[in-house]
Amino acid sequence: MANANDYKYDYFNVTFPAEYVAHVEINRPEKMNAFFEQMWLNLSAIFRKLSHDPSVRAVVLTGAGERAFTAGLDVKAASQGTLSRESSDAARSAALLRRHILEFQDCITDVEKCEKPVIAVLHEISFGLALDLSLACDIRLSTANTKFSVKEVDIGIAADIGTLSRLPHAVGNASWVKDVCLTARIFGSEEALRVGLVSGVYANKTEAVAKALETAKTIASKSPVATMGTKEILNYSRDRTVADGLQYTAVWNMGMLQTRDVKDAMLSGLEKRKPTFAKL
């Protein structure tokens, strides 16, 4: 099992509740888990480490406390950071902001690039960055009382950390996407489930987290070669044509099919036993 002492980061709790399963908890409940710069830098570091940790095969992402998965960006902290720096030269101000935005985007994308499947559990307030972050995850679950909002237009900006790029792919309904992004209206889990934003809704946070951990343990029982490849190919194919996806799959599997995991999985089926797989 992975060592929790290797994952000591401010504003996050990282535990390992089952073999090959990591649980990352955003831990700033007194501020409704709102993010400021050090938090998204720490998030990036955690997921880059989890990606290459051979003792991890699946990850669950939650928010501490009962009030919010995350209320989004800590606007007060942001206004005192990079966004507060001014220059008399517009081009230099623009260059600074571009670097800042790209760095923030990369930190959230590190969740998507994690080789291990990531399951997000959203509860109560899940605004703004909550959507950016959860859309970088592979599976999204929510509670019956989750409140979602693409909130950025209410603070005078277009969402710039991932929602506007990933949400259309996640739900496949351009009219609905533009509706929620342009109005910043709050919508609930029933609507999120109907459009495909989440794949399951549970009575409360305890039940949702339990389901996420159960799913993570199932994923962790599979060949890590197979789950890594499945996530990689699905994400690659999402943004490309079917022909491109098929070609990439063939190139990927010409190497990965040579794993002994295939033989082990087939033999376990014939012998009616649970397979075990080596660390990746």
TrEMBL record:
One of its GO terms (molecular function) is delta(3,5)-delta(2,4)-dienoyl-CoA isomerase activity. InterPro entries: ClpP/crotonase-like_dom_sf, Ech1-like, Enoyl-CoA_hydra/iso, Enoyl-CoA_hydra_C. GO terms for biological process: fatty acid beta-oxidation. GO terms for cellular component: mitochondrion; peroxisome. Coiled coil: none annotated. Keywords: Acetylation, Fatty acid metabolism, Isomerase, Lipid metabolism, Peroxisome, Virulence. It holds the Pfam family ECH_1. It is found in: Peroxisome. It comes from the Eukaryota. Pathway: Mycotoxin biosynthesis; Lipid metabolism; fatty acid beta-oxidation. Belongs to the enoyl-CoA hydratase/isomerase family. This is ClpP/crotonase. It comes from Sporormia fimetaria CBS 119925. The lineage of its organism: Eukaryota, Fungi, Dikarya, Ascomycota, Pezizomycotina.
